[in-house]
Design a protein that fits this description.
It contains 4 helices and no strands. 6% of the residues are buried. The chain has helices at 7-36, 44-71, 75-105, 116-134. It is mainly alpha-helical.
């Protein structure tokens, strides 16, 4: 069995297995359910419940990553993760700002706001690659 000396990694592994994986599965189930019934217009109470649950799941994933950063003892790894998050936030803010101006002035298609969260994590992933290549 693989052992690590970093207690933050042990707790992160446990949270990933018992917290993140079920939340990700819940996101897919709720999103598929929501997309499938989008045109039928479910009862407004159910719509609010599903929307709120999806938002709470996303918030839980962010909190989990914050807990990992708080527990991480290695300054280099924590600093690299923070740089990746900052890169992801900056790139997401830039993209959403440009798209917003395009919507206002050029009348391009509307960017669905639920896509901002996966776009953010995609940019965090790209930023992580850049940070690790830079610090190699």
């Amino acid at each position: 069995m693989y052992q690590t000396n970093n207690p933050a990694r042990n707790r992160m592994d446990d949270r990933t297995l018992f917290f993140i994986v079920p939340l990700i599965i819940a996101v897919f189930v709720l999103a598929i359910w929501g997309f499938g019934y989008h045109h039928i217009q479910p009862a407004s109470g159910m719509t609010y419940l599903v929307s709120t649950l999806l938002a709470l799941i996303y918030i839980g994933l962010i909190v989990n990553f914050g807990l990992y950063l708080a527990e991480e003892k290695d300054e280099f790894i924590r600093n690299a993760q923070v740089q990746s998050l900052l890169g992801g936030m900056g790139l997401t803010l830039a993209l959403v700002s440009v798209w917003g101006f395009l919507e206002n002035f050029v009348h391009v298609g509307r960017l669905d706001l639920f896509l901002v969260y996966p776009i953010f994590w995609g940019f965090v992933g790209l930023s992580t690659i850049v940070v690790w290549l830079k610090n190699r």
